[in-house]
Amino acid sequence: xxxxxxxxxxxxxxxxxxxxxxxxxxxxxxxxxxxxxxxxxxxxxxxxxxxxxxxxxxxxxxxxxxxxxxxxxxxxxxxxxxxxxxxxxxxxxxxxxxxxxxxxxxxxxxxxxxxxxxxxxxxxxxxxxxxxxxxxxxxxxxxxxxxxxxxxxxxxxxxxxxxxxxxxxxxxxxxxxxxxxxxxx
Length: 185
Fold this sequence. Notes:
Elements: H1 2-5, E1 8-12, H2 20-28, E2 32-36, E3 53-56, H3 68-82, E4 91-96, H4 102-109, E5 121-126, H5 127-133, H6 138-147, H7 150-175, H8 180-184
Parallel strand pairs: 1-2, 1-3, 3-4, 4-5
Helix pairs in contact: 3-4
């Protein structure tokens, strides 16, 4: 289910070495990804293109107070600049060594509906677990988190069904005419 949904991923983390395992698992599963260090967003003049999933470290900015409230405020400012309105549907995996701050992160992000496109879902994964144990269970763990989130689970299953249905309808229509000359006419 989740592997079918994830086509593209944006990774935002201030420690490149901590995302190497993520990058390897995405490459192995043919998932397109992009990695950004948060410094790239200082004075940014571009908007991110929509990605299905954003892997986001909570503690991104070492130049501000190292507490959840300050870091979340910084992330919200990034989102205002780099996501903006009409970003499209996406989810966030809060990829953090501080999973206890997930609830506060969700509350703050979902209070910004007028500032940028809100995510369909936010789930948390403990970064330390993967750095110590490897990434082999990453997709299973995301799936388990999403199954506990009824709206997110519904959305992903519905999105996958629509995608499969669209492909099937197009294949069925085009199979009615086998020669390209006839199709072109």
